[in-house]
Design brief:
The structure is a single chain. The protein is α+β, with helices and mostly antiparallel strands and about 550 residues long. Helices cover about 35% and strands about 15% of the residues. The protein contains eight helices and 23 strands. Helix 6 packs antiparallel against helix 8. It is elongated.
């Protein structure tokens, strides 16, 4: 029956008079159905009793009884229609606790039954007198949790002392002396606190995301450094392996040459011995033939013609001594050690130079600091002594005693590197200085006075200090690299062409900005007229 019912439409259960679903349906003898109230009212207004559908006349007014079967079907259909008209529960809404299958949206919750009802299942609470006394409220989920376990009342208040939700009865008993407020008021307070907490948590999240980025960037940088280090190390080890292979080849060649010399000596002696054997064999044959003659005359005549024995060496003292290889390997290893030490020193310097070159900065010379004797190029990259003092505007930044010039750029932290060509010069200064150095008086340029400079003259090359640090003079020095690590208090100088470290000043005190300094020195009648040139870095392998 229920299955069939699902296929019926509203027409099958509608009264043809009121056109609504049957209410207490009755059936006439002609087989048509009407609401009891509708057909009764219809006949009350007629003279004759007839069927409103087929117009069949009845002699007397029929005594109609309610069709219980049709009445039940109509009631079921009416319920189905009401259910279809009610909305289904949405995710954020409270569902009906009674509905089976598809749950409908609850319209009320009962605080006595602890149950939420849709409009259909709420009907008994609206009709039955006993249920009408129950307290209905707007729909609430988890009703059991909203009720006071002790007093079986709705938790509507909040105790600020014990920070718990309470009912009205609680405020009259154990929470009598405690300050209580409505849940809504405490909710607003806590919501405001949540906003602050959320902001703090959001800030913490951002800080941690930033830390993740820092760590990721560090790993990425470390990866690049590792790749570069592996590449540099590969070149170093390839060069060292080349040195070892060359030493091995030279060692093998030395041993082979000694062996060949011995073999040649042996071959020469063997050939000489074989020649003597051949000569002696011929004489033996001649003697044997002579000894076979029995004619005395012929024998004596032939004996007189017998040749003298061939000259031979006294072989008792002749010997071939095997070559001695003692000390050959040791000498080769000593030579290898010396070569490797030189090569490693060279390669270490080259690798270090390559690492510091990545901190190259663009340096240009500042004409406002230039001594009046100096001539600067238009691009600010070259400086030389013009031999004539120019008339220039007064400037507190200008050097007036030493023919120095500073760069326009200053550096207060981190690392920086630049290169200066010193080719064809016989005297020069270069390095870095503090911003506050004395630019007027004859101040000795040392780290104590704010100077970290390399100096070349006819006596050699020095790091300017008190006393100066004498350095090995590099005859082919053409370009000097200057590297500064302000955070590590370090200044280093490099021979760029030879890719060799010259000198490092450690433990420096950098308390203020640093400026690159160049001093081409006087031209000295043309022998030192070449300029100092700030050169772009060429990171060749």
């Amino acid at each position: 029956m229920a299955s069939a019912n699902t296929c019926w439409s509203e027409e099958n259960f509608s009264c043809s008079i009121c056109l609504d679903v049957f209410n207490n349906p009755v059936t006439t003898t002609c087989g048509h159905n009407f609401c009891r109230t509708c057909i009764t009212k219809f006949w009350d207004e007629q003279v004759q009793y007839k069927c409103p559908v087929c117009n069949k006349l009845f002699n007397t007014r029929p005594d109609l009884q309610v069709n219980t079967f049709l009445s039940e079907l109509a009631a079921q259909f009416r319920t189905t229609i009401r259910v279809k008209e009610q909305p289904c529960v949405e995710p954020a809404e409270v569902p009906c606790d009674v509905c089976t299958g598809t749950q409908l949206k609850a319209v009320k919750s009962c605080l006595v039954c602890f149950t939420s009802y849709c409009q259909t299942h709420l009907e008994p609470h609206q009709r039955v007198a006993r249920l009408q006394k129950h307290r209905l409220v707007k729909p609430m989920d988890r009703l059991e949790d909203r009720m006071c376990k002790k007093h079986d009342r709705l938790l509507e208040l909040f105790c600020q002392t014990e920070q718990v939700c309470v009912c009205q009865f609680c405020t009259e008993t154990e929470h009598r002396s405690h300050p209580v407020v409505p849940l809504k008021k405490e909710y607003e307070v806590k919501t405001a606190q949540l906003g602050k907490i959320e902001a703090e948590v959001s800030q913490m999240i951002q800080e941690r995301k930033q830390k993740i980025k820092e760590i990721t960037d560090t790993v990425e940088l470390s990866s690049k450094d590792a790749d570069r280090e592996i590449a540099d190390g590969g070149q170093v080890f390839t060069a060292l392996i080349g040195c070892v292979e060359k030493c091995r080849d030279e060692f093998n060649q030395t041993v082979q040459e000694k062996l060949k010399s011995t073999e040649k000596q042996a071959d020469d002696l063997i050939r000489e011995l074989e020649q003597e054997i051949e000569d002696l064999t011929n004489r033996s044959s001649e003697v044997k033939r002579l000894s076979q003659r029995e004619d005395h005359l012929h024998f004596l005549q032939a004996f007189r013609s017998l040749k003298d024995p061939p000259p031979t060496r006294d072989w008792t003292t002749v010997e071939v001594r095997p070559p001695s290889y003692v000390g050959t390997l040791r000498r080769s290893l000593d030579q290898l050690e010396e070569t490797l030490n030189m090569e490693m020193k060279k390669l270490r310097g080259a690798a270090k130079l390559k690492r510091v070159q990545q901190y190259e900065v663009d340096v240009t010379l500042d004409p406002d600091t230039s001594h009046p004797n100096l001539i600067l190029s238009e691009d600010g990259k070259q400086v030389h002594d013009g031999g004539v003092v120019k008339i220039l505007p007064d400037n507190p930044k200008r050097f007036t005693n030493y023919i120095h010039v500073l760069a326009s750029q200053s550096f207060s932290s981190g690392r920086f590197y630049f290169e200066v060509q010193v080719k064809d010069k016989t005297k020069w200064y270069l390095g870095v200085v503090r911003e506050s150095i004395d630019r007027i008086s004859e101040t000795k340029g040392t780290p104590e006075t704010g100077y970290w400079t390399l100096f070349l003259n006819k006596d050699g090359m020095f790091f300017r200090n008190d006393p100066h640090v004498r350095l090995p003079l590099r005859a082919e020095l053409q370009k000097v690299g200057v590297f500064v690590d302000i955070d590590e208090d370090l200044v280093s100088f490099y021979d760029v062409e030879a890719r060799v470290h010259i000198y490092s000043a450690t433990g420096c005190t950098f308390s203020e900005p640093l400026y690159p300094l160049l001093c081409p020195c006087v031209h000295n009648g043309g022998t030192n007229s070449a300029p100092l040139i700030i050169s772009p870095v060429n990171q060749t392998d």
